Amino acid sequence: MESERWLEPLPARLQQQFQFLLEVDRLKTVIRGSRITDGSRKENTAEHSWHLALFASTLAEYAIGPIQIDRVVQMLLIHDIVEIDAGDTPLFDDTTPTTQAKLEQVAAERLFGLLPQDQAEYFQALWTEFEAAQTPDAKFGKAVDRLQPILLNHIVGGGTWTDYEVDEDKERQMTHRIADGSPTLWAAAEHVFADAVRCGWLLPAR
Amino acid sequence: MESERWLEPLPARLQQQFQFLLEVDRLKTVIRGSRITDGSRKENTAEHSWHLALFASTLAEYAIGPIQIDRVVQMLLIHDIVEIDAGDTPLFDDTTPTTQAKLEQVAAERLFGLLPQDQAEYFQALWTEFEAAQTPDAKFGKAVDRLQPILLNHIVGGGTWTDYEVDEDKERQMTHRIADGSPTLWAAAEHVFADAVRCGWLLPAR
Question: How far is CA B182 from CA A93, B136, B148, B159, in A?
Answer without folding.
Answer: 45, 10, 14, 24
